[in-house]
Each structure stands twice: as C-alpha cells, then as structure tokens.
Amino acid sequence: MEQCSENPHDDYRLFISAEPSPDPHESIIPQGILESAIKITNEPPSGIQANIHKALDNFTQETLESCSKETEFKAILFALCYYHAVLAERRKFGAQGWNRSYPFNFGDLTISVSVLFNYLENSIKVPWKDLRYLFGEIMYGGHITDDWDRRLCKTYLVEYLKTELVEGIYDNSQ
Prior knowledge:
single chain; dynein intermediate chain binding; dynein light intermediate chain binding; Dynein axonemal heavy chain 17-like; P-loop_NTPase; AAA_lid_11
C-alpha cells in the first residue's frame, strides 16, 4: 500500500474486506487505515419498507391533495419519505452507517414537507436546487456535524430529487 501511494494511478482504488481471514495473522488491519477509510456495507436494509410506511403514515389524504401542484407534491413527498427512511435505516449499522449519531426524527420530515408545500405553491417550476439545499443543509443537514455524512446526505438528495421524478421516467435501477 505504501509503494502504491507514492505515485498512484488516477483510477487506483484499494478495497479491503472486513471478512475475517482463516489465518489470524493476516486479518490485522492498521487502525489508521480503518479510521480514514470509507466504509461500505452490502447488507440489504431489513426495515426500509417499514420505515417508508411509518413516514408516509404521518400524512393524510387531505395533505396529499392540498397542494395545487398535486403530482409534483406527491412525488417529492414520497422521495422525502424514502430519504427519511434511508437515513433512519442507516442508524442500525452504527459506525458503518454514520460516522456520528444524529437525532433525525419525524419533525424533520414534517417540516420538510411544509417547506415543500410552500415552495411549490409559490413557484412556477419546481425549485430542485433550492429544495435539495433546504433539506440537505438545513432541515436534515442541521443535525449533521461530519463532512462525509453531510456529503452522503446531499448525494442521496441529488439522486432522489430530480426532474425525472415528476416526469414519470425516473428509474432507480441504474
């Protein structure tokens, strides 16, 4: 690793597995590498669907139909509920999910939906950039103190809140 880090190729990436080695002497990863590494897990979240249902249960049919831009409102509200569910689900993974613990709650989601309603009612077009900023930097981002965690949340919003969401061509399989 030290030899490769002197003149690395731009596309060079090193992946280290947390799977224990059969030989205990080979399974020691220096603490400095673990602390500076980006942690990825491939375990499917077990409660994401329950978290989405719990998030959606906070809103009545009247709420869903209250906005003059009903299609956009419903689509973005679902994306926000999905976003909230993902953030809540990551908590189960402890230090692998978040670098620090954050008190995300349904109040963040409720306020975000109120902001969404106001912005849609007062805008001709959906202000995607403004909404991503408000949700990622203020509503949910206000809790986040770690730069990598903030970057992750903003990346989720870039993927979830985009024009294709309301145009009916959004494909999450990519």
